[in-house]
């Protein structure tokens, strides 16, 4: 094998391994409404130097308010689509923690942690105040087919 090809393969191996990592939470996620159990939004999680954040890319529930009327400060009455609602998550083994999540319905911000489940097909996300014991969890799903808003 030529030296350059071998060097290329060695340098790219970590990237290929990460691309197939079912524990990596980067990508598109479909959130589920707690009350209706229907798809609520699409959220894109990205990593920047090992720190994960997520923004709303599409509202799937046509009845959902388009603006964050309950938010404070700079987010008040801003469009929810395009809003970063998940920040500061860092990977620790199979879990991600140390972040915060905004609930656009209430305008409240909570500490956040997440962990991939079902081989990375779903994501258990927990928002809490103080101790993780005092919070609530949601299960988000990776969309397997293109998603469009509900009629």
End-to-end C-alpha gap: 56 Å
State the low-pLDDT regions, or none.
3-19
CATH class: Mainly Beta
Mean pLDDT: 85
Query: How many strands?
Result: 8
List the helices and strands and how they pair.
Layout: H1 3-19, E1 27-32, E2 39-48, E3 51-59, E4 84-92, E5 95-103, E6 108-117, E7 122-128, E8 135-141
Antiparallel strand pairs: 1-2, 2-3, 3-4, 4-5, 5-6, 6-7, 7-8
Describe the structure.
The chain is mainly β and 151 residues long. It has one domain: Lipocalin (Beta Barrel). 11% of the residues lie in helices and 44% in strands. The protein has 1 helix and 8 strands. The chain has an 8-stranded antiparallel sheet with strand order 1-2-3-4-5-6-7-8, with no helix packed on it. The protein starts with a helix and ends in a 10-residue tail after the last strand. The N terminus is likely disordered.
List its traits.
single chain; 151 residues; Lipocalin; eight-stranded antiparallel β-sheet; 1 helix; 44% strand; globular; disordered N terminus
Compact overview of the structure:
With about 150 residues, the chain is mostly beta strands.
């Amino acid at each position: 094998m030529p030296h350059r090809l071998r060097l290329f393969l060695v340098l790219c191996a970590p990237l290929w391994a990460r691309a197939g990592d079912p524990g990596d939470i980067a990508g598109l996620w479909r959130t589920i409404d707690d009350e209706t159990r229907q798809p609520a939004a699409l959220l894109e999680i990205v990593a920047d130097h090992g720190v994960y954040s997520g923004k709303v890319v599409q509202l799937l529930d046509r009845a959902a308010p388009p603006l964050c009327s309950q938010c404070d400060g700079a987010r008040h009455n801003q469009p929810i689509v395009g809003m970063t609602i998940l920040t500061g998550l860092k990977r620790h083994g199979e879990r991600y923690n140390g972040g915060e999540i905004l609930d656009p319905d209430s305008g409240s911000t909570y500490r956040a942690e997440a962990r991939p489940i079902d081989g990375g097909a779903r994501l258990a996300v927990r928002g809490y105040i103080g101790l993780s014991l005092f919070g609530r969890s949601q299960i988000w799903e990776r969309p397997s087919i293109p998603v469009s808003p509900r009629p």
